[in-house]
Design brief:
Helix 4 packs across helix 7 and helix 5 runs parallel beside helix 7. The protein has a single domain, classed as Rossmann fold. It has seven helices and eight strands. It is globular, with a radius of gyration of 17 Å. Strands 6-2-1-7-8 form a five-stranded parallel sheet. Strands 3-4-5 form a three-stranded antiparallel sheet, with helices on one face. The chain is an alpha/beta fold and 234 residues long.
């Protein structure tokens, strides 16, 4: 965890307490959490079946990963108490595919568990366009993708019935359409630099040694995003 100059001293001290209070943040329900009425709204069956398999693996999430997820949860709750939306930028300097996977699964998990007032952005230093192999990997996981701009690799990603699709786009740092302040950066590539304007930076690197194929990478990301939003819902 890295303290940003804009992160207040009080918030920083509370974050440090997480190290000495294991389980407290996830163990207590927040009665003010806004829940979506999902009556008649469901995620697609293939995605739901994957979720059912993943929830049996929650105990396998490692302590260092749980600590990073707690930091994300703390940011969400602090924004909620302040009456503000929680905005997360998933950032990698080069690895655009991982930020797209993470944004997709965070969106699904937040929807499934009914967590409102949260938004996600995929930002890469290269500003790399969405690649066809990224979309194919997500389709294999149960998503449905449509090209929404003729002749360009711009996609809408569908994951549930009666639910607005997720527009897949990679932004450059501080590009129009992304928050310039009042957000949390989640760095998914350990070699990435800090972003300006971030209230909090959380390190949650994936596939550091390149040993995971697309399926295994999606599985790890989806497991951790469902784990995070389950405990935000509870």
């Amino acid at each position: 965890m890295t303290k940003h100059p804009l992160l207040g001293t009080g918030l920083m001290l509370l974050l440090l307490m997480l190290t000495f209070l294991p389980g407290q943040l996830f163990g207590q329900a927040n009665n003010t959490l806004s829940l979506t009425d999902r009556k008649g709204q469901k995620i697609y069956p293939i995605i739901y079946n994957r979720y059912k398999e993943l929830r049996e693996e929650y105990p396998t999430v490692s302590s260092p990963r749980i600590q990073a997820l707690k930091e994300m949860a703390f940011y969400f709750r602090s924004q909620q108490k302040a009456g503000k939306p929680a905005r997360f930028i998933f950032y990698a300097d080069q690895n655009a595919q991982t930020i797209q996977f993470t944004m997709a699964w965070a969106t699904v998990a937040a929807f499934y568990y009914g967590v409102n007032k949260v938004s996600f952005y995929a930002v890469s230093g290269s500003g790399e366009a969405i690649q066809a192999n990224t979309i194919k990997a997500l389709e294999k996981m149960g998503f449905i993708a449509y090209n929404d701009e003729y002749g360009r690799l711009q996609f809408q990603l569908h994951y549930g019935y009666q639910q607005q699709p997720l527009k897949m786009k990679s932004y450059r740092p501080q590009e129009k359409g992304t928050p310039l302040e009042d957000y949390c950066t989640v760095i998914v590539d350990a070699s990435s630099p800090l972003l300006k304007g971030s209230d909090l930076t959380v390190y949650l690197p994936y596939n550091e040694f390149g040993e995971l194929d697309d399926f295994a990478l999606n599985k790890q990301i989806s497991l951790e995003m469902f784990y995070l939003f389950k405990h935000l819902r509870d």
